[in-house]
Amino acid sequence: MPFSRFIFILIDGAPYSVFHELIKNNELPNIKKFITNKGCLKKAVSVFPSTTGPAFIPFFMGLFPGTANVPGYRWLSKKDILQHKYGRPGLCSYQGTDGLNFIVDLPDQPTLFNYFSPVSNIYNLLTKGCSPTDDRTRRKKPLAYATAHFFHGIWQHITAVASQELIKAVEEGDQFIACLFSAVDGHSHFSHTKSKAVIQSYKAVDQAIGKVCQSLYKSGDLDKTMILISSDHGMTNTKTHIDIARCLDQSGHRCLHYPLIWRRNVKSASMVSGNGMANLYFKANAIDWGERMPIEEINQRGIIDFLLKVEGLGLIAGQSEDGSIIVRNRLGKSQVSVANGTISYEFDGVDPLGYNTCYHNLSSREALIETYNTKYPDGLVQLLQIFRSSRAGDLVLSAEPGYDLRARYEYPEHRATHGGLTAEQMLIPLAVNFPIETDFIRSVDIFPTALNQFGHQIKDFEIDGQIVK
Ligand SMILES: [Zn+2]
Predict the structure, then answer these.
(1) How far, in Å, is the centroid of ligand 1 from the Cα of 77?
(2) Mind listing the pLDDT tens digit for each residue in 90-116?
(3) Neighbours of ion ligand 1 (CB under 5 A)
(4) pLDDT, tens digit, for every residue of 41-57?
(5) Distance 139 CA to ligand 1 centre (A)
(6) At what angle do helices 196-218 and 154-171 cross, to 10 degrees?
(7) CATH number of the structural domain 5-70+106-235+425-452
(8) Would you kindly state where each structural domain of the chain is located, as residue ranges?
(9) Residue of 328, 338, 264 whose CA lies nearest to 298
(10) What DSSP designation does 50 have?
(11) How far, in Å, from the CA of 74 to the mean position of ligand 1?
C-alpha cells in the first residue's frame, strides 16, 4: 500500500472556483507544492443540501444525506414530532451547542475513524467512531461554535487552535487525523466569498499545511501520508433575503420555524439550511402532520402557485403520488423518475434545471457526467437522494444565487449563502497528493476511494459512493 497515514483537512465553505484561483495564482504555495503538484486538484460535487453537517456525511461514511436520513441542517420528522415533548428527535437544528446532537442522528455504520488507530479529530462535528479522548477539541468546540456565530473575530483564534492541534497530532504519530477549518465559511457569511478575511483564512490553512509537511518530512513520513483537502460545500454572495416563514404565514399556512419552535396552531414548517435551501412541511389536518404530502395535494391547496410568485426561488421540488420527483420553477416543470435502478428525466416547456435534454435509463454515474458542467451539477441524483429521507420536507426549495431563505433571526446578517443545488454552492475542491484521472467525482466517492488506498474494502454494508480512479 502506498500510504500508511491519512490527514483529512476539511475547509468549511470553500467553493471550487475560489480555491482553484488561489492555487493558480500561487497564493497557497504549500498546498500547491506538497499536494496538488504531487497529485491533483479536482472539481468535485458536494451533496444537496450543500451545508455543514449533512455535507460532512459523504466524506466520513460514503452516504448521501438522504440515505443517512439527515436531510438538512434543520429538519422536522413528521413521524416523531408529536411524540417528543422537548423537540427531539421530532425537530432538529445543529446550530451552536445543538451540533452535539448530530452524531445521534446518523445511521449505525462505520466512519473513517473506525478504519485507523490511533486517530484524532479537530473541530469536526462528525465524531461518530472517534472516542471522546481522541476528539482533541471536544471541550472547546461547543463554545467556539456558539460564540463564533455572533462574534466573528473568534474565527482567527479557532484557526490558530486547529493548526496547533493538527501539528501536535501529526507529531504524535496519529494514523488518521480529521481537521476542520471553519473560518472561510464563517467570514464568508459575514462578508463575501473573496473578502480579505476569507482569503486570509485560506492562507492560514496553507501555513498549517506547510508546518505539517515539514514535520512529516523530518520524521520520514511525508511520502507515506495521504493528505486530502476538500470542502463540504461552496458558497455564493447574497443580496436578498426571502422570508419564507412569513410568506407561508401570509398565505394562510401559519409556519413553525427556528427559533419560534413553540408556535401554536401552525399549519406548516420551514426548516432552512445554509440558508439557500429549505425543507417545507405541511400538516395533513389541524392536529396531525400525517405522512409526506404528495405534490399533487400541495398543488391543490394552492401552495405551489403561491410559491412560484416568490422572486428568487430557483427550484421547488416535491414527490409525486407515483414516487417520482417533480421539479417546478416559474418557467417550467420536470420529472425525475427511477425504474429498474436507472434514472429518467422529462420536462414540459422550459426545463427548470436547464439541461434541455430528456434522459432515459441513465446509470447514476451517467447522470453525474451528463449534468456535471451545468447550473445544477448532479441535480437528478441529488433530488432523488434527498427524498429518500423520511425527514425530508414535503417540498424542498433551492434559492437562486443572490438570494437566501432566512430574513429574520440571523445575526449578524448573512451576506453569503450555501445549501442550495446551484453550481457555485455544490462545486468543491478536491486536492490530494496522489493522482486521480477522472474529472467526475462526488464527495460521496471520497470515502471508498481514500480507504482503497489503504487496502480497506467496503463490505457488509451499503454506501452511495464508488471508488474513482
Ligand atoms: Zn455556513
Answers:
(1) 23
(2) 888 888 777 778 999 999 999 999 999
(3) 185
(4) 999 999 999 999 999 99
(5) 22
(6) 10
(7) 3.40.720.10
(8) 5-70+106-235+425-452, 237-417
(9) 328
(10) B
(11) 13
